[in-house]
Amino acid sequence: MILLIKLVLAHLAGDFLLQPASWVEAKEKKKLGAYQLYLHVVIHWALIMLLVWDGNFLKWAIFIAIVHFVIDILKLYLQNNRTKRRYFFADQLAHLISIYLIYCWYKGYTHFNSSYFNERVLLLITLAVFLTVPASILIKTFIAKWTPDDNEKDKSLQNAGKYIGIIERLLIFLFMVFNHWEAIGFLLAAKSVFRFGDLRESKDRKLTEYVLIGTLLSFGTALLAGILYCGYTS
Question: What sign has the CA pseudo-torsion 107, 111, 115, 120?
């Protein structure tokens, strides 16, 4: 199990934390001609080797990197502007399934029992990483079709919503890990107070529904991550 957590952590870090938006744009534009695509795959391989820290896993890390490359190529050539949102989720699902299948294949030949971290710590780190940029991108992609039209006079700080979401999800997760459920209610109430004024002044029903969907998805994602961690470690 600890090996699988490490592989998922490497995927989350490589696909979200260590892949700038400019790389994604370059890959979509140049496809096989983009050097960022190959650098992206090398980073995935390096992260796997760094986390697993076992020379015997080298060929398996290369195998995972090659499969990742193939999945990314299929996505780049199959998607278009209309289907980009759909292929994003299909791409992530394919990556996770391939990681799990390769993990099962590996476990059928070799028993893995050494690590720098125990399973509890690695699960905590993996879920915390997931609740940052990966969860932001997933939620943003999911609610993209409901995004209201921009109003120049009401624009907010650049990327403010993303960072607010990251902070609130990490806080909820930490409150659950340390068994301070009452703080989650306080956080939700505090955010509601600030949001209520903005939504009341805007008198925009679509904006209100958009904010509610995003907030519920953000809170729900953090709660599920906390439940998963608490259930696994209890």
Answer: positive
